[in-house]
Amino acid sequence: MKKAVQKIYQEVAPTYELVNHILTWGFDIRWRKRAVKTTSAMRGGLWMDVCSGTGELAQALARSRDDVQVLALDFSLPMLERAREKKGLEQGLFSLGDVTRLPFADNTFDLITISFATRNLNPNPDYLSACLREFCRVLKPGGIFLNLETSQPQPPWLRRLFHLYIRTVVKPVGYLFSGSKAGYKYLSHTIPRFYASGEFTSFLREAGFDQVRATPLLLSIAAIHLAVKSE
User: Fold this and answer.
1) Which of 77, 147, 192, 231 would bridge with 141, disulfide CB 3.0–4.6 Å?
2) Is residue 3 over pLDDT 80?
3) Model confidence over 83-100: pLDDT tens digits?
C-alpha cells in the first residue's frame, strides 16, 4: 500500500498544487491561512509539518513567525523537492520519513501540523490511530497538534451532493491536469471514507490528546482540529 501511494504522489507532484486549487475553488488556500492564524499565539519554536507534500502549509507557517523553525516531513522525495524550492523554506529543515515511525525522540516538537493528508493515513482505523499516537509521542507535553482535513457535511442531502462532486469531478479533472488516472482515482476514494468532525475528535482523544477543539469550514466540508498533548 505504501509503495503504491508513494508512486501516486510521484506522478502527481508537478501539478498537485494547481489541481488542489482548482478542485476546491481556491478554498484550500483560505483554509490554510485560517489554520496558520490559529498558531499566532502558540509557544515554543520547533514545529513540524508532517505529510508536508509540496510544502504549502510549511511555507505559510515559516512566514508567519520569525521565532520558529519549521521542519517539513514527507515520504515522497519528489514532493519534498518541490517544497525546498519555495520562498521562505530555502533555509528550512526537511526530512524524508514515515509517519508511523518518526525519526525523532519523545517530546521533541512544540507543534505538529498536517493538511489534507490525514485521510491518506486511513486505510483502516487502527493505522490512523497508530499515526496519531506517533504524533502525540514526539510532541512535548502541552504541545499542540493541528489537523486541517476534509470532513463530512452533516445534512444527508449535502453529504450526498458533496460525494457526488467527488465522484464526478475529482477523478476526471485531476486526470486532465496531471495525466494520472490512478492518482485521482485514489484521492477521490479517500475523501468520502474520512470521518465527520466528531468521529475524528474521538480518534484524537483515544490517541492521548485532550482539549480537542474542532472548527468546521464551509458547511463542514472541511474542518480544523486543534488538540493538546496532556502535560
Assistant:
1) 231
2) no
3) 999 988 887 899 999 999
Domains in the chain, CATH or no CATH each:
2-229 (3.40.50.150)
Mean pLDDT of the 123-145 span: 97
Q: Tell me if 10 sits within 8 A of 31, measured CB to CB.
A: no
Question: Mean of the pLDDT values across residues 153-164?
Answer: 94
Residue 49 has pLDDT above 60, yes or no: yes
Query: How far is residue 96 CA from its own chain's centroid?
Result: 16
Indicate the SS3 state at residue 29. helix
Write the DSSP string, 151-203: ---SSHHHHHHHHHHIIIIIHHHHHHHH--HHHHHHHHHHHHHSPPHHHHHHH
Q: Are strands 222-229 and 139-150 parallel, antiparallel or unpaired?
A: antiparallel
Rounded-to-integer distance, Cα 229 and Cα 138, Å: 10
Reference 49, options 118, 106, 1, 119; nearest CA is 118
How far does CA 61 lie from the centroid of its chain? 13
Cell 468520502: give the residue.
192
Does position 131 have pLDDT exceeding 90, yes or no?
yes
Please give the model's pTM, rounded to 2 decimal places: 0.95
